[in-house]
Amino acid sequence: MRLPVLIFDIETLTDLKSGAHLYGLDLPDADLEQALIKLRRQESGMDFQRLALHEIVCISGLWLDEQGGMKMFSFSREQHSEAEILTKFLSIFDKRNPTLVSWNGSQFDLPVILFRAMYHGLSAPSLFDQGEIDQQKRYNNYQNRYHHRHVDLMDVMAMFNGRNFQKLDDIAHLLGYPGKRGDGAYHVPEYVRQQEWQKLTAYCEGDVLNTWLVYLRWSLLKGQLLINDYRDVIQRTIQFLSTQPQHRDFLAVWRETSQRTEFTSIDFLSPTL
Fold first, then answer.
1. Per the database record, which ranges form the Predicted 3'-5' exonuclease PolB-like domain (predicted)?
2. 3-state DSSP assignment of residue 62
């Protein structure tokens, strides 16, 4: 496992202003949202908006450094505009070149970040350079599907075959991890409308944590982690989460779900846990 590692996830809403501009609509926001949904259904047969119309309201990440230290962060609309969220996230790549890990990041998160960064006139060569500036990135960059600087777990675990794509929630449950807690519904628009920022960041960070745990199992499968190292990182993750009050629920659910699979059932066997 090449350190440092950054596991990330984004949460989005439909950008009503851009949608109105794109389709030439002059409607109140409540009517505009419904009109955009209907137009999207006519275009594609689904409600899921085209990527360029996804406005980012939160980016969360888990950082693991070369010494094994962990740090969780979230940039949300509670304190930052979308442009500020993007600027803060993109600045990470100006300072370091981490292994980037996501679930469906190559088809959703990174393209959305690209479109929204362009919308705000931002520059992000450290993330999007494919060798034009740094020749080393010609052979290992964040965009190439088969490079390892960005590991899209959904894609690599499907062996790059879209017919094999799985949901993060399903794989997390299968492996004995929490997955989505609660009713599993998508509440992000309501969190933003009600300004429930802690719930928003906890939701996004929960996806990051599930992705991290699946990535560790993937690294074990690939031989990038030996079993003793894997167990050590799992224990360090548990210890880290025990210091994070906002993830007390995640840790409690993990303790319970770990008992449903034989391999994961020993995650909490240590008497100190």
1. 47-254
2. strand
